[in-house]
Amino acid sequence: MKPISRRTMLRGMGTAIALPCLEAMLPRMTFGATAPTVPGPRRVAWIYVPNGVDMASWKPGTVGSDYTLPPTLRPLAAFKDKFMLISGLACLKANPNGDGPGDHARANAAYLTGVQPRKSEGANIHVGISADQAAANKIGFQTRFPSLELGMEQGAQAGRCDSGYSCAYQHNLSWRNESTPVVKDCLPRSVFDRLFGNGDANETAEARVRREEQQKSVLDAALSDARSLANNLGATDKRKLDEYLSSIREIELRITKSASAPAVPVPAGAVRPPDLDLRGSTRKLGVSSSSTTYDTHLPLMIDMMVLAFQADLTRVITLPFADEESNQTYPWADAPVPHHGTSHHMGDPAKIAMLAKINLYHMKHVAYLAQKLDKIREGNGSVLDNSLIAYGSGNSDGQRHNHDNLPLLLLGKAGDSIRTGRHMQVEANTPITNLWLSMLEHTGASCNALGDSTGKLSLT
Question: What is the Cα–Cα distance from 305 to 285, expressed in whole angstroms?
């Protein structure tokens, strides 16, 4: 029997479900031969957190491999050998450089571009291509989606935001070119439909309505294909396929449950996520109470990030946990305070403690992502082992709005091509774009320059 194509999909009413890597997709061996180990594709992602972090709870006291995890990073203890910390990097183009106030907008816009955004509220915005889009230009043709831009807060795309900067700078990490942001998708239902729809927007929408009327799932629509495929799989592949389809169904159920849950009042000062309406409706932010919470929304976005990597739907993802100046509150972390306001702590120990709790809450979700990716086996390792995921901020100390000595964690091993399990200190004010160039090189999307880069950072 011929191997199953890596691009095989389960199809049904408006549905096209890509498959994870299965043994049946590998070349058949003659009797007595040893099956080859086929490495998984290398993937790259950026997770952004706004408003800086409490650096005292973030940065270890020593460099090298023999360091003690600081409080904020302790949720990642089980993965200490699969990430590295890098201190000393700077987002130099987030500094004023003669442009006056506007550090939050600059931090967000310059983080992945390394370009100083032009101070403008209008149509003449100008920054530069972002690292993720540079990667998409190199390796995006290999997957269904060249890149995937996810988010938690939609934000305005025009008008004035931070100190005379266009809102486009503050609410978009990803830039296709110097004047075109790639707007993130913040609706879990919308992302789900993109991942598992057949590519025809009209047919997908119509099929979704029909499935809802019949109370069916996307899996029900593709059930016939799934059964036919399972009949031709070995025991290991059957189990892997069942686990994968079960995870899709579980996410679909959570989206549905979120849409039907009782409304949750918006906390004072909070920026609530978009409604997780089953039909993907997009009522204006802040107008009414939400049927979901950030605490429900974030795991859903992470889970869909995992599915997109697992099914090789894309190899390039960005996911900001919130936008710069976000005043999201975190009652689930015992921090029912506005994030941005708390980052301006003025040295108040109580506010610093609250900021540390917010940082810890975010890190627990990074650990959740690591755990999910590490469970998915691929070759001799896992999807996590074949990925490089940067987690950090364009600010370090939110109180001072400084953009040097940034918090940066690099999760994954890019197919064992980098040396993890250590805290690396680089020369002060090394452009963070040097790291982005290295990440691109280790994931098959090598570029010679990006923004203000001065060379590639050695990760070996």
Answer: 23
**CA distances to 80, 124, 316, 359 from 367, in Å:** 11, 40, 19, 13
Domain ranges of the chain: 43-198+294-442
SS3 150: strand
Asked whether the predicted pLDDT for residue 8 surpasses 90, the reply is: no
Q: Tell whether the model's pLDDT for residue 223 goes beyond 70.
A: yes
What is the C-alpha to C-alpha distance for residues 371 and 230, in angstroms, rounded to an integer?
27
Say which CATH class 43-198+294-442 falls into. alpha beta
Q: Say if residues 460 and 442 touch (Cβ distance below 8 Å).
A: no
Q: Which residues neighbour 22 within 8 Å (Cβ) at sequence distance 6 or greater? A: 4, 233, 237, 240, 241
Q: What is the mean pLDDT of residues 253-268?
A: 64
Q: Closest by alpha carbon to 86, among 103, 104, 73, 71?
A: 73
Q: Which residues contact 141 (CB under 8 A, 6 or more apart)?
A: none
Q: E-strand spans in 31-116?
A: 43-48, 83-90
Candidates 190, 193, 185; CA nearest to 217 is 193
* Residues in a beta bridge with 382: 377
Q: How far apart are CA 9 and CA 241, in angstroms?
A: 12
Predicted model pTM = 0.90
CB 411 within 8 A of CB 370: yes
pLDDT tens per residue, range 247-260? 999 998 898 887 66
| Sign of the CA dihedral with 79 first, then 82, 86, and 90 last | negative
